[in-house]
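Me: I'm a chemist; would you kindly supply a protein sequence with its structure tokens?

Assistant:
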Amino acid sequence: MDEEVKAKHIRAGEEAWNRGNLELLSEVMASGVVTHFPPGPDKVGLDAYKEWIMYSRTILRDFHVTYDKVIFEDGWSGWLGTVECTHVETGKHANVIWTMMMRLEDGKTVEIWHLIDGIGYREQLGLPLATQPVMQPA
């Protein structure tokens, strides 16, 4: 993949998540991007993704993601990083691993899978753990 495309994706991610600057996302994401963030429902569309970022930055003060490894290959991108934040309601700080896989078409992200250490995150922030299983038995 073109180095300029990679750099643009990394900069857009850092600007959006770390600074709340969402302007660059339209340059690197398709308008109909689908975001999977298990166990929650999928988010469809760039506007929904932007709303999710701003909501996250509102409830998680000092939100900062550090990307430790970013790989672009064959129309895919993998990101491994660490999220640090302080939950506004509990006042507690968390430091957790965050991974993303993105599928790209024509240099733009069309699908994203976000995975985070949800149990570690909730424990560090003093939030209750899920009381129901994520997947219901058949």
